[in-house]
Amino acid sequence: ARADVDTDLFDYRSLLDDDERELLARLRDWLEKNLEPVVNDHWARAEFPHELIPLLAELDLMGLSIDMTDRPARRRLLSGFVSLELSRIDSSFASFHGVHSGLAMGSIAACGSPEQQERWLPPMRRLEKIGAFGLTEPHGGSDVAGGLETTARREGDEWVIDGAKRWIGNGTFADLIVVWAKDVADEQVKGFVVEKDMPGFAAAKMENKLALRITQNADLTFSGVRVPEANRLQEANSFADTNKVLRNTRGSVAWSAVGVMTGVYEVSAQYARDRVQFGRPIGGFQLIQDLLARQLGNLTASLGMAARGAQLQDDGIFRDEQGALAKSFCTTRLRENVGWARELMGGNGIILDYGVARPFMDAEALYSYEGTREINTLIVGRSITGESAFT
Ligand code: FAD
């Protein structure tokens, strides 16, 4: 159960207009009706609720911040609150959205030619084609800029891709995988849209994952996969172009962290009302109030950073260090908050049914993906000192 507590103490939602608030209210209803009742069961079985995809498509939320022919781009502030709402119920499901809508559609929008955008974005918006984003490799995710081992070799009108990717969200069922590979000719990182039925491509689900269990992460292999030149993202010419995508999606992970914080705050606040010890609700004890007040402080500060970041993205002036700081700061606060919410609930904090154990585990994934805290810290550190600590 969730307490009806104020999760937006400084009223950031007042920055939204009525239309945006109405869309978010519809999404919240949808999630509470369709996702929340089945989420623990799917998490326990590590299965994705595929049956929800056609229903989700009806909400028309994919690629919201991308300009489409019949739907102008909406504000990043709105897509941020969409990530918050999804993550408030389940951060695996939010990751499905983040990978498909932010990373895959975002790559095609940022690095695809107008023809490529017209070819792939409309079916992805309707969720008829599901996207994935393949950057990380088995040898590691932090050193992807310099250390990419997947190669692309041009042969006439085709490219031949060889290599492997690891951790790829939606990888087991995606139709279109944006794959980042090094061109053997000029050593630059380029982006390719690999289609799942291309010969030489294979995906295997990663098993025994104890966070974001609903997210289907996969090991991908590419053995001489032939990709037409028409599937090479025409505006992706170096890792700097990959970074354009990541800068924005790091802002979205900050929103996800705020969403998970919102969910566990509501659940633990209700628990503090219901649970009686020493003859009174535990919410009357000062130490329990401290656990709630500290959660609200982190939640409020993170929401402020995420919201301002979204405005800067809308203004086209969002910088790498801002995305990196928002991602690492908000997910660090998240890690504290899920710990405090779990602590507040005693033993029940580690039982799936009570609503905090799942986000407690999921927070670990948010903390490490899209650049670990260390890597994002080094991006911030480089901007502070002018010195790169990466090499
Ligand atoms: P490593 O790079 O091996 O790092 C290990 C440790 O060393 C970390 O603590 C790291 O911070 C630290 N470290 C590394 N270099 C330095 C340094 N210079 N200074 C200080 N510390 C350092 N990737 C995709 O491409 N697509 C996806 O869809 C995707 N989804 C994911 C979903 C989940 C649930 C997870 C967990 C990961 C996902 N990833 C995805 C991969 C993710 O981006 C990587 O896990 C992340 O970049 C870290 O890489 P790594 O796990 O290989 O750790």
From TrEMBL:
The family database entries (Gene3D superfamilies) matched by this protein are listed as: Acyl-CoA dehydrogenase/oxidase, N-terminal domain, Butyryl-CoA Dehydrogenase, subunit A, domain 2, Butyryl-CoA Dehydrogenase, subunit A, domain 3
Q: Which organism is it from?
A: Jatrophihabitans endophyticus
Task: Set out the biological process GO terms recorded for this chain's protein.
Answer: fatty acid beta-oxidation
Protein's recorded name:
Glutaryl-CoA dehydrogenase
What single Pfam family name could you report for this chain, choosing any that match? Answer: Acyl-CoA_dh_N
Cited InterPro entries: ACX4-like, Acyl-CoA_DH_CS, Acyl-CoA_Oxase/DH_mid-dom, Acyl-CoA_Oxase/DH_mid-dom_sf, AcylCo_DH-like_C, AcylCo_DH/oxidase_C, AcylCoA_DH/ox_N, AcylCoA_DH/ox_N_sf
UniProt entry tagged with the keyword Oxidoreductase: yes
Q: Which residues form the Acyl-CoA dehydrogenase/oxidase N-terminal domain?
A: 18-126
Q: Where is the Acyl-CoA oxidase/dehydrogenase middle domain?
A: 132-225
Q: Which cofactor does it need?
A: FAD
Q: Which UniProt keywords apply?
A: FAD, Flavoprotein, Oxidoreductase
Q: Which domain of life is it from?
A: Bacteria
Annotated family: Belongs to the acyl-CoA dehydrogenase family.
A molecular function (GO) held by this record is: acyl-CoA dehydrogenase activity
Acyl-CoA dehydrogenase/oxidase C-terminal domain segment(s):
243-384
